[in-house]
Write a structure and sequence with these properties.
4 helices, 0% strand
Length: 107
């Protein structure tokens, strides 16, 4: 079975995309959140990143041609911005750590 024909892959891709869109919409009001709301948002973003990393690892480990092509396309697109997928996740993690630090500093 081809990688993208898997119902599991399709379902997870849909859920990831939907959850990501919702978090991005919600994030536009991040400055208005109280402390607990900000903490919850950061936790949800961390969970999203973990899910996305697992999803991407499945692509990388797959022997399916389309999956390998997708990974290469992502690398090429990120490369245009001087990034790799690993660097992108590292930057996202640093951003979330900075957000946590700001919360702690605000007390």
């Amino acid at each position: 079975m081809a990688f993208f024909d898997s119902e599991i892959v399709q379902d997870e891709a849909k859920r990831l995309f939907s959850d990501y869109q919702q978090l991005m919409q919600l994030g536009s009001d991040y400055g208005k959140f109280d402390r607990e709301g900000k903490k919850l948002y950061i936790e949800r973003m961390e969970e999203m990143m973990e899910r996305y990393q697992v999803f991407m690892k499945r692509f990388e480990l797959s022997e399916d041609f389309q999956a390998k092509l997708t990974v290469e396309q992502l690398r090429t697109q990120l490369g245009q911005f001087g990034l790799t997928p690993e660097k992108m996740f590292e930057q996202m993690t640093l951003t979330l750590e900075r957000m946590k630090g700001e919360l702690d500093a605000a007390g």
